[in-house]
Amino acid sequence: MIGKASQTRDGIRLYQDADFEGMRKAGAVTARILDEIAEHVFPGQTTAEIDRIITAKVTEYGTTSATIGYKGYEHASCISVNHVVCHGIPGDKKLKDGDILNIDVTVILDGWFGDSSRMYVAGKLSRKSERLIQVTHDALMKGIEAVKPGNTFGDIGHAIQTYAESHRMSIVRDFCGHGLGQVFHAPPNVLHYGRPGTGPTLEEGMFFTIEPMVNLGRPETKVLADDWTAVTRDKSLSAQFEHSIGVTGSGYDIFTLSPTGKFHPTYA
Length: 268
Ligand code: MF3
Ligand code: CO
Ligand code: CO
Description:
Blueprint (H helix, E strand, L loop, with lengths): L5 E2 L5 E2 L2 H20 L10 H14 L3 E2 L11 E5 L2 E3 L13 E10 L2 E10 L5 H19 L7 H14 L3 E2 L5 E3 L6 E5 L16 E4 L2 E3 L5 E3 L6 E3 L5 E3 L2 E5 L4 E3 L14
Antiparallel strand pairs: 1-2, 3-6, 4-6, 5-14, 6-7, 8-12, 9-10, 11-16, 12-15, 13-14, 16-17
This protein binds 2-amino-4-trifluoromethylsulfanyl-butyric acid and cobalt (II) ion (2 copies).
């Protein structure tokens, strides 16, 4: 078995201590790009231009994009505006004052994947959008705080779901987080809802994302004719935050933390 990576019964790979460093380096580049893109978000800007800037930075920082060429996707980012839940395709439509957007970037560095997303605003943030964004961010952090060996994936989902629903918001069921590491998407599916004690047990060396999508209205989504863009069926606003994390002996490591503390809020 020499050289064979270990994995759990559920097919979840367990990485070694040295692998954490590879993930930290990849995650740091993703975080830097998400930090630096903030100043390029303003009314009148197009999401295609934001993506063009991200594409240039991916190369400048010695990484490659995990999304360009992934299942036919052609961009270095997904940019999801207002009622777009996820997988928004960058385009020529101009951002309007008060638009909220999720920017999701995944880079590959030395074979390691760094996947993260945050919320941004063009111009002035409304009170209602601010509330949605705050609750979504805090829901992610509640989920992350449930990460330690011995807890289960159901504990993570439960922490996220109960927090969002206690604020009368809803959790999207149609998309989930995922294992990652030396691949983009691997087992397990990381659900953002669930019951305590259910699902696989967390073990040291698991790497995965947590990336809850929270809607102000109902949780149902639909995918548009472009086969990517997922929107809320009721057209209500949606927000999302994503970190790539690893399970340590006593808790977690967040690989995609902002070096400048700008994960949230990204705006002043
Ligand atoms: N980064 C997304 C995630 O969090 C995946 C985007 S796949 C793409 O898993 F092809 F739409 F870019
Ligand atoms: Co992801
Ligand atoms: Co992502």
